[in-house]
Amino acid sequence: MPNYRPGRAALMWRPAGDDGTAECLLCARACRIPPGRTGFCQVRLNHEGELRTLNYGFTGALALDPVEKKPLYHFRPGTLTFSVGAPGCNLDCQGCQNHGLSRPGPDFAPVEAPADLAARLGQAAQAQGADSWSFTYSEPTVFFEYAQDLAAEAAKAGRPTIWVTNGEMSPQVLKSLDVAAMNIDLKGFTEDFYRQVTGGRLAPVLDNIETALSRGVWVEVTTLLIPGLNDDPATLKRLAAWLAGLGRDVPWHVSRFFPRRRQSSLPPTPLKSLQLAREIGLSEGLNHVYLGNAPGFSDTLCPGCGHALVARDGYRLGLDLLSGRGVCPACGRPTAGRWT
Question: Does an H or E element contain 163, and which?
Fold first, then answer.
């Protein structure tokens, strides 16, 4: 088939030489991709000098989730979010829990997605009563074209969109997003950790957290605490202080690690390490520090008087005194978030 072109035309790229090389502009890697090769994410192919996206319409994960699962604790609590994931990632984390989806391998092949696929999924989301749409499970940056079409369907239905991301997107991508909320992984706080454990870089993540906050996006930050690699108290202190400097109301989720992939020989994160990280976050001025993949410390408390405002049992809400108001009924202090 001499006219066959795999996948769909990609966005966010430019020619980069007379030899047909294409420079991808989706993320901080800015891969220069020769003809016939894919970028680091394995889902963007240079086909005869034209960049093609291979994962458009390839829905590798689809679910109706509690928004708390993203995790987002201060964004429309107790609601359901229509969650979509597609193959590919611009990182290669040693302990990735979704590596079958995020690292599909060199033999990954595109699917022929129906032209009305986004509209069909939009109808499904409405039928299931989704309050929002989330792009999650893998890295939405590398299924940008698919996510943008899905976001357009969400907008037609009056539903906000959420990105659950590693934060390594390019400034061009972040600027183009019409997104209401983001959970951004801040996987560590040194460039050495990022380079050795994730294959990425810290600096773009910090820049994108700051930019998203400045644009009015609701941002919550997650750090997976890996024993011996990113749980040094002094480093956590610097991380928490940096985050509090952006805003004391930015929620920080400190999540428990369990052995996965190339980190299968490591132990799970001790609970006392999680609790110490929470204490560090609070001592550095953060108002809301939550523990993930572990019991306890998941309730939202008033930063003024300590009154319980949202009580959680796993992903279920046992108490919600904020929705529609955002004000503590005990002392009248507002609590930052998107409560309606």
Answer: strand 161-165
CA atoms within a 13 Å half-sphere pointing along the CA-CB vector of 15: 7
Decide if pLDDT at 243 tops 50: yes
Which among 60, 54, 43, 49 has a CA at the least distance from the CA of 7?
A: 54
Question: Beta partners for 301?
Answer: 308
Residue given tokens 């805003």 in the structure block = 247
> What burial class does residue 36 get, using C-beta atoms within 10 Å of its C-beta: 0-12 exposed, 13-18 middle, 19+ buried?
exposed
Q: Which domains does the chain have, with CATH numbers?
A: 8-53 (no CATH), 61-294 (3.20.20.70), 299-340 (no CATH)
Residues 6+ apart with CB under 8 A from 17: none
Taking residue 169's Cβ as centre, other Cβ atoms within 10 Å add up to: 28
Closest by Cα among 91, 74, 312, 66 to 180 = 74
Signed CA dihedral, 65, 68, 69, 75: sign only: positive
Give backbone dihedrals phi and psi of 72, rounded to 5 degrees, phi first. -130, 115
- pTM for this prediction: 0.97
DSSP letter, residue 10: P
Output the 3-class SS for 263-288. HCCCCCCCHHHHHHHHHHHHHCCCCC
pLDDT tens per residue, range 74-122: 999 999 999 999 999 999 999 998 999 999 987 888 888 999 999 999 9
Cα 333 from Cα 326, distance rounded (Å): 9
- Give residue-wise pLDDT tens across range 311-321: 999 999 999 99
